[in-house]
Amino acid sequence: QSTWGKLRLGNEHFALQMSQSKSAERASKYMVSVADFKYLSNFIEYMNKDSSQFPDWEKTVLRDLKKDLQEHIKSHFDTCASTRQKFVSMPPELWQDYSNGMFQLTEKPRPVLGYLPKKELDTLNHKCQSVFVCLIEADRASIEHSLDVMRASTSDRKEVESLLARDLFFLQDAEDHRKAATFWKELADKKVAILNDLEAREVFLEEIETFEQRASDPQRFSKGNSLQLAEENKFRASSIKKLKELDAKAIKQCTDYKTQTGREFQVDGVPYLEMIKEQQFGRSSTGLSLKKLRPEAIPASQKQKYAGGSESNLIHDVNDSELSRRLSLHEQGTNPVSY
Fold first, then answer.
1. CA atoms within 13 A of residue 156's CA, in its CB half-sphere
2. How far, in Å, are 118, 177, 327 from residue 125 at the CA level?
3. Which of 108, 171, 235, 317 falls 20 to 30 Å from 81 in CA-CA distance?
4. How far apart are CA 221 and CA 223, in angstroms?
5. Cα separation values, 10 from 3, 4, 18, 20, 232, Å
6. Contact between residue 272 and residue 329 where contact means Cβ atoms under 8 Å apart
7. How far apart are CA 227 and CA 339, in angstroms?
8. For the CA atoms of 99, 105, 109, 115, what is the dihedral angle to 10 degrees?
9. What is the chain's Cα-based Rg?
C-alpha cells in the first residue's frame, strides 16, 4: 500500500474519531452527571483499579456490590422502554460487561451511566453508600470491643479517636477502618490471653490477703489447735513458692508482650510490671507471714531498692521536691492487691 493510501486511511480514521467525539459531546448534554453521585463515583473509581492489589475482604465486597448494581440496572432495563431505546443504537462494547453481558460499571471506553434516569442513579448511589457505611460501622464496633476487652489506656483510645470520629464513608475510609480493626483485634487477642493468667494471679493474691486477715485473729486458737497452726504454716510455705512462680510468669509475659508489640503491657493505663513491683514491696520473704509488713518495719535496704525512680508510676501527683525518695503505694496507704 502506498504512502498516500496509508495517509488517506489515517485521515479517514481520524475523521471517524472526531465524528464519534462530537457525537459523544452532543449526547453528553442529555446525560446526568455521574460525578454528582459521590458514592457511586467512588465505586466506579475502584472498578478501574487493579483488583489483584485488594485484600480478599475488599474483593468480595466489590464483587457482591457490582452484582447487586448490575442486577438493579437489568431490572430497570426490563421495565423501562425509554432507557432500552437509548442503548439500542449504541455499540454493545460501550456499555456491556463482556464477562456476563450485564451493564459495565467502569465508564470505559466512554461514560454511559449518565444515560440512566437520575432516579436510578440515586438508587445505585444509595446502594453503594449503604455498603460503605455498614463496613465502617462494623469495624468501628470491632475496634471499640477490642479496646474494651484489652482494658485499653486513654492513650490507646486517643490513637483511634480521630478515625472513629471521621464523618467520611468512602472505600478508602473503609480500608482505614479495616486496617485499624485488624490491628486492635490482634493486639487484644494477645493481651486478653495474658490478662486471663494475670486474673488468676490476682485471685491468688486476694486469697493470701484473706488468709492473713483470718490468721491475725488471736481467737482462732481458742481451743489450742496446734494442727491448725501447722496447716497455716504449710499454706504459707506453699503459697510463697506459688506466688514466686506466678510473679515470674507474669513478668515474662509482660516483657514478651513489649518485645512482640513494642508496647508496654498496661491494664487500664497502669503498667503491670509496676503493679507487680508494688504488690511485692513490703512482703516478707522469711515465710513467717504472707502479710505485708508495716511501712515502718520494712527494711531500709528494701525501701532503697524499691526507690529506683523519682516517683511511683502508679501515682501521678507525687511531687519529687516533697519526697526524699520514691514512696510505694503501700507506704502511702493504698493496697494494690488487684487490678
1. 24
2. 10, 21, 63
3. 108
4. 5
5. 10, 10, 12, 15, 104
6. no
7. 35
8. 120
9. 36
Q: How many CB atoms lie within 10 A of CB 153?
A: 18
266-267 and 270-271 strand pairing:
antiparallel
Per the CB < 8 A criterion, the answer to whether 193 and 224 are in contact is: no
- Residue 79 φ/ψ, nearest 5 degrees: -110, -10
Q: Please give the backbone phi and psi of residue 4, each rounded to the nearest 5 degrees, phi first.
A: -65, -40
CB 293 within 8 A of CB 282: yes
**Are 85 and 1 within 8 A, CB to CB?**
no
Peptide bond into 109 cis (omega under 30): yes
Tens digit of pLDDT at every position of the chain (339 positions)? 443 344 444 444 444 444 445 555 555 667 999 999 999 999 999 999 999 999 999 999 999 999 999 999 999 999 999 999 999 888 999 999 888 889 999 999 999 999 999 999 999 999 999 999 999 999 999 999 999 999 999 999 999 999 999 999 999 999 999 999 999 999 999 999 999 999 999 998 888 888 877 777 766 655 556 667 777 778 888 888 898 899 999 999 999 999 999 999 999 998 999 888 887 776 665 555 566 555 555 556 655 565 564 445 554 444 444 444 444 444 444 444 454
Angle formed by the axes of helices 118-149 and 38-47, nearest 10°: 80
Phi and psi, residue 150, nearest 5°:
-90, 5
Q: Measure CA of the first residue to CA of the last residue in the chain; give whole Å.
A: 89
Look-up of cell digits 456476563:
100
